[in-house]
């Protein structure tokens, strides 16, 4: 499983969205429309960065597995 350092750091930003969703689901406290829009823009920019990544990177399935592991790590750390 391999990710570039930049991709790993970008995916760590998903902690923002995971925390917001858990806050909404568990505590019932929501975000403002502006906050949701900013979170959506951050997530979209992460996806664009990941899709436009370096062509010399590892095979696609390894990149997605690495991304999944980072997202899982973020989810567990938010618990």
Shape: flat
Strand content: under 5%
**SSE class:** mainly alpha
Mean pLDDT: 76
Can you walk through the features of this model?
- By secondary structure, the chain is mainly alpha-helical.
- The protein has four helices and no strands.
- The protein has helices at 5-12, 14-27, 33-51, 60-78.
- Helices cover 76% and strands 0% of the residues.
- α1 packs parallel to α4 and α2 (14-27) crosses α4 (60-78).
Summarize the model shown.
This protein is an all-alpha fold and 79 residues long.
Topology, please?
Elements: H1 5-12, H2 14-27, H3 33-51, H4 60-78
Provide keyphrases for this structure.
single chain; mainly alpha; 4 helices; 0% strand; flat
